[in-house]
Amino acid sequence: MPQPQATLGFSGALLIPLFLLLPICPLIAFQDPAMQDYANHMARAIIITHADLFRHTYVVHWAPIPDLGWDLWAILLGQWLPLHTTATLFFVFYFALAVGGLFALHRAFCQALSPTPLLAGGMAVA
Questions:
Q1: Per-residue model confidence as pLDDT tens digits over 74-84
Q2: pLDDT tens digits for range 84-105
C-alpha cells in the first residue's frame, strides 16, 4: 500500500519576508529607481532641506496637500542621511506597507493566511 505524500503547507512567517526582500534588491543594486520624476522629487527635497541656501530664489510655503509624504520623510531623515539613502528607505517603507496591507486585508476577509496576496503584490506597488 503506498504511503500518502506529505504536502508543503503555506508558511507565512517565511514567505512574507522573502517576498518583501526580493523586490527591494533592485532599489539597493541600482543608483536611481525607474521613476520619471525622481530627479524632480530629489531637487525639491534638496531645496526644502537646505532652505537657507536657496532663500533668495525659493520660498517654501507649506499647505495641507495629500502629497506631503516624501517631503516630510526627506526633512526628517535628510538631516542625518544622504538624500539617496533617504529615498531608498522611503521606497522600501512604502513597498512594505503596500504588501503588508494586502496580507492584512486578505487575513481580515478570509480568516487565514495564504499566498494569494502575492499575486496582487506587483499591482500594489506599480
A1: 888 888 999 88
A2: 888 888 888 888 788 788 888 8
pTM over 0.70: no
Within 8 A by CB and 6+ apart from 117, the residues are 99, 102, 103, 105, 106
Nearest-angstrom CA–CA distance, 109 and 38:
36
Contact assessment for residue 102 and residue 117, using Cβ atoms and an 8 Å cutoff: yes
4 burial (CB, 10 Å; 0-12 / 13-18 / 19+) is exposed
Domain span at 115? 37-124
What interhelical angle do 83-110 and 12-21 show, nearest 10?
150
Q: Is 41 part of a structural domain of the chain?
A: yes
Q: 5 lies in a domain?
A: no
Do residues 41 and 87 make contact, with C-beta atoms less than 8 angstroms apart? yes
**Cα–Cα dist 45/43, whole Å:** 5
User: Could you give the number of structural domains in the chain?
Assistant: 1
